[in-house]
Amino acid sequence: MRRRSLARSSRKSLRKIESLRIAEHIRSQFQLDWEGIHGPAHWARVRAIGLELADSTGADPLVVELFAWFHDSRRFNDSYDPEHGSRGAALAAELCGDLFTATDAQMALLKEACCGHSDGHLQADVTVQTCWDADRLDLARVGIIPDPRKLCTEAARSPLLRKKAMGRSERWSRWSWARR
Hints:
CATH class: Mainly Alpha
Number of domains: 1
Number of strands: 0
Shape: globular
Order of helices and strands: HHHHHHHHH
CATH architecture: Orthogonal Bundle
CATH topology: Hypothetical protein af1432
Strand content: under 5%
Largest sheet: none
Number of helices: 9
């Protein structure tokens, strides 16, 4: 029953996002290879695994979806860019009210998730943890097997879910190290 209720809630809250307009806006200012390791294929995988995790963790699906869009949207390079999460959160704040609707509490969670997603933190609100886990579970796209000790939630540490996420990374990424 909980899963069905969350799924219904997820669909309702995700209607508040104008995904195509968000993608167009991000693409117009994105500074990296659109098909690269931090582009929309990565965001799609983070979204898919994040929403799946949210069904188990009780995370806010709107924040999880917005995190997928914005967490790497303002990178300047594919390597060391410590402020990219903050820039992504600032972009989300700029677009809130125009391309999506979110409460102040949801925006605070999104900012925390974006700003801290590359720092290796484990302790936070469950929604923030779910965002971080969704991103970490896509590390296989660059040849890194996610370490369960570096995942925040029990759901993300599930061997079945980790295997599913790694398979998705390998199938959906032209950068997959498994193909080399």
